[in-house]
Predict the 3D structure of the following.
Amino acid sequence: MISENEKNIMALELLKLTDDYFKCPFPEIKTLIYSDIEFLKKIIY
């Protein structure tokens, strides 16, 4: 079980990754970022 504090830290990382996703011009890198986003969402929610 992960603590509320750990969830908050992961949520901040998720925001950063989302920002990186929309700024990135390269489709192949966007795919990698998106998979990280999906992975974090599974852990947090």
